[in-house]
Specification:
CATH superfamily of the largest domain: 2-keto-3-deoxy-galactonokinase, substrate binding domain
Distance between the termini: 30 Å
Structural class: alpha/beta
Oligomer: single chain
CATH topology of the largest domain: Nucleotidyltransferase, domain 5
Strand order of the largest sheet: 3-2-1-4-7-6
Largest sheet: 6 strands, mixed
Number of domains: 2
Length: 316
């Protein structure tokens, strides 16, 4: 935890309250972090969201007085503090901030998620990533003009189509969840590989290459190779090969559906450094460049943008 800094410099409290962790930030008007705290995620808060928040933020309030609060993530879900409705796509970024729901007499603002009907005529939803999208529009202003494709890799990877700054549609792939399930609960991966998420780069690239060599083949017909190639002595780290197969399938499938939003063959990849690197490698195998944006920075920038719009009466 860092120092609070000068009294008066703080403008608002921002928080990314996910399923497994709360990351809370004391920020100035530009969104720069002056102090930070961490706490239990929505799944572990036991329904005591107000108490958890007050405990973590009490030091700031004691020193600086009450400050406006902007929270995103699962805090606004059915297991959260207060359910924030989804904003239907297509939508402009301003509508996301305007649709915040409030608590504590209007002091606490919870950012809503987004919904759409995807290309396969199925309902799709995201929550938390909308704030990273808002942040990306601030960190990369070029996204406000033209058609762009964003990739937000994670447990449930989101592929988001932008047009002139408007979120037109998106597509979800449970790539990270499927990797974890197969790694931890199948015979495809050795037990000693079921700790951590690091991967062998060369074996990961081999998984990419093998999938791309037969792009017409269903992923289901490739997965057992993680086991068979290990048995034949061709693989030392099946988990890395599995990661390569899954991410290759994710990337190729998304490009086939949404490539019209990447006319410059450039995709903005927003997330952790490890995941953005893996997806950048997969995109490069199809001749696409990846502009990597740090996910936490995008989230903080998005929270700051919501705060600015709310504090200026919806005119930011």
């Amino acid at each position: 935890m860092t120092g609070i800094g000068k009294k008066g410099a703080a403008s608002f409290v921002g928080g990314d309250w996910g399923t497994s962790q709360l990351r809370l930030f004391l920020c100035d008007a530009q969104g720069a972090v002056l102090d930070s705290r961490t706490g239990p995620g929505a799944a572990d808060a036991g329904g005591n969201f107000s108490d958890v928040f007050q405990c973590l933020a009490a030091r700031w309030e004691d020193s600086l007085g009450p400050l406006p609060v902007v929270l995103c993530g699962m805090v606004g879900s059915s297991i959260g503090w207060l359910q924030a409705p989804y904003v239907a796509c297509p939508t402009m970024p301003e509508r996301i901030a305007d649709a915040c729901v409030t608590l504590h007499g209007g002091v606490v603002h919870i950012v809503p998620g987004l919904s759409c009907r995807n290309r396969f005529d199925a309902p799709d939803f995201l929550r938390g990533e909308e704030t990273q999208i808002l942040g990306a529009l601030q960190l990369a202003p070029e996204l406000r003009q033209g058609r762009w494709l964003l990739c937000l890799p994670g447990t449930h990877t989101k592929w988001v189509a932008l047009e002139d700054g408007s979120v037109r549609e998106f597509l979800t792939a449970p790539t990270g969840e499927l990797f974890a399930v197969l790694r931890d609960h199948s015979v495809l991966v050795h037990k000693h590989e079921r700790v951590g998420t690091s991967t062998d780069a060369e074996t990961f690239k081999e998984g990419l290459a093998q999938f791309n060599a037969f792009p017409h083949v269903q992923l289901l017909h490739r997965l057992f190779e993680c086991r068979s190639r290990e048995l034949s002595g061709e693989l030392g780290t099946p988990a890395a090969y599995l990661s390569g197969l899954l991410i290759a399938s994710d990337v190729l499938g998304a490009l086939r559906v949404l490539s019209s939003f990447s006319e410059a063959r450039l995709v903005y990849v927003i997330g952790s450094s490890e995941l953005t690197r893996l997806y950048a490698t997969a995109l490069a195998s199809h001749g696409y460049e990846a502009s990597q944006v740090e996910g936490a920075a995008a989230s903080r920038a998005g929270l700051a943008q919501v705060h600015r719009r709310l504090s200026q009466g919806g005119s930011a």
